[in-house]
Amino acid sequence: MNIDTINSTSVLRRCLRFIVLMLVVILMLSSVAYSQPYTNPTTVDLKTAANFRILAGSAVTINAGCTVTGDVGVSPGTGMTVAGIVNGNIHTTDDVASTAQSDLTAAYTDAAQRTADATLDVELGGKTLGCGVYNSGTFTINGVLTLSGTASDIFIFQSAATLITGTTCIVTLLGGAVWSNVFWQVGSSATIEGDFKGTILALTAITQNAGASSVLTGRALARNGAVTVSGAEVLPVELTSFTAELKNNSVELYWTTATEINNYGFNVELKIENGEWNKIGFVQGHGNSNSPKEYSFTDSPFGGTKFKYRLKQIDFDGAYEYSDEIEVNLNPPSKLTLVQNYPNPFNPTTIISFEIPVKSNVVIKVYNVIGSEIADLLNEEKLPGRHQVEFNASYLPSGIYFYSINAGELKPIMKKMILLK
Predict the structure, then answer these.
(1) Can you state the percent helix, strand and coil of the chain, rounding each to 5?
(2) Which residues contact 14 (CB under 8 A, 6 or more apart)?
(3) Were both Cys, which of 87, 177, 220, 247 would link to 149 (CB 3.0–4.6 Å)?
């Protein structure tokens, strides 16, 4: 082989390596292009149209088997067929629906006139997108579309023609992103199946096809056409966060909603270790709201060191939905402690609290001033943590009494209490 042949082969190899490297770079750029965040756009202000779960220009049809949680309206048309369930108010060509349609027209125009950050392929399934404005001649979703962002990030999709999703459609929100900040401006009609999220602003008709997995978490708002829903649900309150914070022996629960429709309030439920769920409180909801609302609840849990909390969101009609569960782990006490009863003096009931550092068989007894046992309040195995028992002395005369605790091999403790009738 001569030198010219060797040099040409070397050059060829270098060229091939360069071409391969460029192809890899192009593929990498294309794979991240859609997830590259753009400047967060301002929201699309729906005004009174946001009070509606379904709003149509000509007619509304809610087929049997479909539950709509929220208000339903039509204007200027008058068609209203309800074979399913509506957990909300129905407005047919009244001032409320008419005003909402005017606000919908303004919101539709606003969304349509936004400058796009990127033009996407027709098929959105398999993509991960950040906040921004995206357009295409038409959109389809077959597979998983992931929208990643915070609770303040806005996603606007502009379709010049149609929006069509298949049965495999799943719109997933990550990082705190909320459906009420996802807007689908559709220049013609929308046909929805699968698990879809966001507010649809369609020029003509919106149709949700039937199916057990067909769920619209959002709004269906049509300017000129009809809205027909046949899926399992069109869902209500949007819970955006649910967290817990330890403060000494108390647990502070915090949660936030982005929007609320027909929200009566929240039952706060607690489960200790492997026990059963129990209601420990209730927090009033805001009914209907289009702005974020913050809630809190304080609990001082007893009965262990591992606790789980969840929320039961309840509508005015009694329909409900559970939140995700959150787990809280308290540090076990460092020693056996018997707390002074409260109230003291008392009549006729009082609470006796205690803490144990290890799993133990706990015995609590009450004695009179001469040392005679008059009550055996507790004799059972308890987990490490804080516990309490109630003592009812309605059958005893006023006087001084003593209560003691024994827990396994730990040193017993005794305290005095006063019954004053």
Answers:
(1) 15, 55, 35
(2) none
(3) 177
Long-range CB pairs of 336-344 (<8 Å, 24+ gap) are: 336/405, 336/407, 336/410, 336/411, 336/413, 337/413, 338/403, 338/404, 338/405, 338/413, 338/414, 338/415, 340/415, 340/417, 341/391, 341/403, 341/415, 341/417, 344/417, 344/418
Nearest partner of 209 among 196, 219, 222, 200, judged by Cα: 196
Q: Give a yes or no: residue 42 inside a domain.
A: no
pLDDT tens sequence across 317-340: 677 888 889 999 888 888 999 999
Beta strands in 124-237 (DSSP E): 128-129, 132-136, 139-141, 144-148, 155-159, 163-165, 170-174, 182-186, 190-192, 195-202, 206-222, 227-234
Same domain, 345 and 221: no
pLDDT for the residue numbered 12: 54
What is Dmax (Cα atoms) for the chain? 118
**Paired residues of 283 in beta bridges:** 266
Three-class SS string for 219-265? EEEECCCCEEEEEEEECCCEEEEEEEEEECCEEEEEEEEEEEEEEEE
Closest C-alpha among 398, 389, 338 to residue 368:
398
Question: What amino acid occupies position 231?
Answer: G
Residue 40 in any domain: the answer is: no
Give the pLDDT of residue 247.
85
CA 250 to each of CA 89, 279, 334: distance values in angstroms, whole numbers, following the listed order: 40, 17, 17
Regarding whether 144 and 8 lie in a shared domain, the answer is: no
**Alpha helices per DSSP H over 34-159:** 95-112
Give whole-number Cα distances, 28 to 24, 32, 100, 131, in Å. 6, 6, 45, 20
**What letter would DSSP give residue 391?**
E
User: What was the pLDDT predicted at 282?
Assistant: 96
Sheet containing 385-392: give its strands across.
337-338, 349-356, 385-392
Q: Are residues 139 and 275 in the same domain?
A: no
Note the pLDDT tens digit of each residue in 159-192.
999 999 999 999 999 888 888 899 999 999 999 9
Specify the 3-state DSSP secondary structure of 101: helix
Spatial strand order of the sheet with 413-419 comes to 373-382, 360-367, 399-407, 413-419
Phi-psi region of 305 (alpha: psi -120 to 50; beta: other; left: phi over 0): alpha
Measuring CA to CA, which residue among 167, 122, 159 is closest to residue 142?
167
Provide the domain limits for residue 16: 1-33
